[in-house]
Amino acid sequence: MAIELPVYFASSAVGAIFGKFGIDWHLLLIQGVNFLCVVFVLYRFAFRPVLRTMDARRSEIESGLKYASDMKAELENLNSQREKMIDKAKTEASEIIGNAQQQAKVYVDQQKADMAAAMESMFAKARADIGAERDAMIENTKSELKYLVVDLASKVLEKTLSQDDKDNFVRAASIEMRDVFYAKKNQ
Question: What mean pLDDT is predicted for residues 53-62?
Answer without folding.
Answer: 96
